[in-house]
Amino acid sequence: MAIETARASAVSPARRTSKPILLVEDDATLNRLIIGQLERAGFTARGVLRAKDAMSAVREDEPALVLLDIRLPDANGLDLLAELTQHCPVIVLTAHGAIDQAVRALKLGAHDYLTKPVRAEELELAIDRALDHAQLRRDGAFLKDQLQSLTTTSMIGSSPAFGEVRRQIELFAPTDATVLVLGESGVGKELVARAIHDSSPRAGASYVAIDCSTLHENLFESELFGHERGAFTGADRRKLGLIEVAEGGTVFLDEIGELSASLQAKLLRVLELGTFRRVGGVSDLKANVRFVAATNRDLVAMSREGRFRTDLYYRLSRFVLNVPPLRERGDDVMEIAQHFLKTRNFNRGIEKVLDSSAVAAIRAYSWPGNVRELKNVIERAVVLSAQNRAIRASEIGLDPRKVIQQGNAIEFSFGYLPTIEEVQNYYVDTLLRRGNFSRARIAEVLDISERSVYRILQQRREAGASPEDEPENA
Ligand SMILES: Nc1ncnc2c1ncn2[C@@H]1O[C@H](COP(=O)(O)OP(=O)(O)OP(=O)(O)O)[C@@H](O)[C@H]1O
Ligand SMILES: [Mg+2]
After folding, report:
1. Which of 190, 326, 332 maximizes ligand 1 atoms within 8 Å of its Cβ, making it the mutation to test the pocket?
2. What is the Cα–Cα distance from 440 to 146, expressed in whole angstroms?
3. To which H or E segment does residue 172 belong?
4. What digits encode the pLDDT tens for the residues 227-280?
């Protein structure tokens, strides 16, 4: 009864797919009988009598599962197991009392065994279980694959500069060497560290990130190396450190430039010896991890000034991966912006687009905060544009114009090609705001009439500039 209910609620994958069950059984009567049972249960099934036909049937029919008799006239079924299990799950059929053979079959990779004569519901249950199991394994592999491609494809950018980054990731990943990832804040150093792990032979094991800037001086050792029970007050049991947690995987040391002098010494020891000791422990343990470190600091300058150990720097810097700033990555800016917009769209179910003014503003800007800043800007723009489909430059909210003023010298940069009117208005604006010039003085500087200045100011006011920006009358 219980079996019936279970079967009614679970739809067997084999009955959903058209793949057949292959039966290898040399007793022709039994063969016909079991095929009949299978067909009544809703499976498609094909029976063969000999081992040699089994192998060709597997290749031709790609069965979902094989039912395999162990005693065959032309071979021992156990000898076929290794090859058959490469294709699909196998359930062996054994004679009553041949339990040792069944055990051997399981050891050789069979999914299950049934003793002959086989009862119909026993047969179905075993098949359903084996097929579900195989499906789960396929799902697992598929999900892992998906996850992998999500993490790797989410590293966007096809500029030559970023191509170099990708090339180096592929180059360094297979080695076990420590890699130092350098680059400005927000360029994607952590993403690169993760990509090194994901493309390395250690990808199947853990990736553990440690932020060195937030590590507590006296907790560092216990965090990283773990501690024995009773090592200090409060250590009421043994705790594994992150190096042990990451066993076989990768430890990412983020913000390594923030590490204090004493911690630098401790880290150097692990890197040099490849061993560590739990706090309060008496023996050295082997550190089976690969280290990747990152910083936006100038470690060379820091070691020159005595703030970063030179020996640690050398240890870290054999393989250095420089992640270039976004402004040097050409069209990556637009590619990444569109990517962030797409993921936002996906999250909110609205399809937003950047209009041409927004695209121009994004291109013109220099992105000192790199990819992180771009991400924030896009997210803000999506919110600001409310129900509108198109995102405009005003919602991007970047000013690509810059003024550098030194005494009487002034330098403008627009980051795009401005119109005469724009140059003029921007100049007036700058004089007003920064120079605190009166109308008369502006007229003098610009070598135009006060009336013209008045007209420009009028235009500005109409365009929405606030009255405080205007000078008192001379
Ligand atoms: N090439 C890229 N494609 C897509 N997203 C990216 C890319 N590079 C970075 N990002 C995203 O930008 C943000 C910042 O990246 P990340 O944290 O790796 O930068 P970082 O260099 O480690 O910054 P910091 O120096 O501040 O630690 C993250 O949300 C990351 O997912
Ligand atoms: Mg980071």
Report:
1. 190
2. 67
3. helix 160-172
4. 988 888 888 888 888 998 898 999 999 999 999 898 899 999 999 999 998 989
Which residues, 6 or more positions from 162, have their beta carbon under 8 angstroms from its beta carbon?
Answer: 324, 329, 332
122 and 9 in a common domain: yes
| End residue of a domain, out of 138, 169, 196 | 138
The enclosing domain of 11 has a CATH number of 3.40.50.2300
Contact (CB, 8 A) for 372 and 401: no
Query: Whole-angstrom Cα distance, residue 173 to residue 270?
Result: 20
User: Which residue do the tokens 């700058």 mark?
Assistant: 430
Domain of residue 12 covers 2-138
The tens digit of pLDDT for each residue in 50-107 reads: 999 998 899 888 899 999 998 888 888 888 998 898 889 999 998 877 888 888 898 8
For 149, residues 6+ apart whose C-beta sits below 8 A from its C-beta are none
Give yes or no: residues 195 and 206 share one domain.
Answer: yes
The ligand with the least distance to the CA atom of 371 is 1
Q: What residues flank ligand 1, with Cβ below 6 Å? A: 154-157, 183, 185-191, 296, 336, 339, 371-372, 375
Q: Which of 356, 376, 396 is the last residue of a domain?
A: 396
**Farthest CA pair distance, the chain:** 115
Joined together, the tokens standing for residue 124 give: 């179905």
Q: Identify the bridge partners of residue 285 per DSSP, sorted by sequence position.
A: 276
